[in-house]
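Record 1 of the preview.
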Amino acid sequence: MNSAQHVAAVSTETARLVATVKPADLTLPVPTCPGWTLADLTRHTGSVHRWFTELLRRRIQQPPTSRDVELHLPEDPDGYPDWLAESATKAAEVFAATDLDAPMWAWGVDQHARFWVRRMLFETLVHRADAELALGLTPRIDPALAVDGIDEFLTNLPFASPFAPLTAQLRAPDRTIRFRCTDSDAAWLIALRPDGFGLLPTPTDPTTADATVEATASDLLLLVYGRLSRESDGVQLRGDEDLLAHWFTHSAF
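->
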């Protein structure tokens, strides 16, 4: 997917999240985000939108020293869904006024403005899934979008320790895990080393990995984000069980 597709998908995913939470009881708990209600989930997503939008507006070139941003949050939580929709509208205005290929600081691999659009997209998509799961609905995710989300997650995860500290424990003596989508040819190979972990070129031969994780793109995206149990029917695990347990214990954020 390209930046223009990411921009369009932010709008689509936000609209789907708004449509999900607006008629719902916002006091309902969100099991995939322990301790949160639907109101908390909606407020968090809109806050992320406004924070990322401010980063893009300022074209920051180094890590920000403060996360303070004016949220204009409604006093009544019933107003959160409309406020979230407004947050996406403001983001879209900044996207349109920004050269998304311009160099810009980001916490992940891609040091360009487009990083933040892609990150906003999958933050929104995963929280849309959270809301649907809280309401007993089955999240539907376009396979191509899910593949892009898995790639974004695995590419940037090695840099996520400042806010996902458990990832710093993803170490092993030169072990590999292969992730593969069963409904496409998309696959990724993660190497865990004594000094860290990261993506490797993906071999076509699955036997080269010490462990393998397979599922549809949609299920695999939810799995790597910790929104789907690895015991689920659609998930196939093979190889080193201890290595897989280590990965899933320390990788979700």
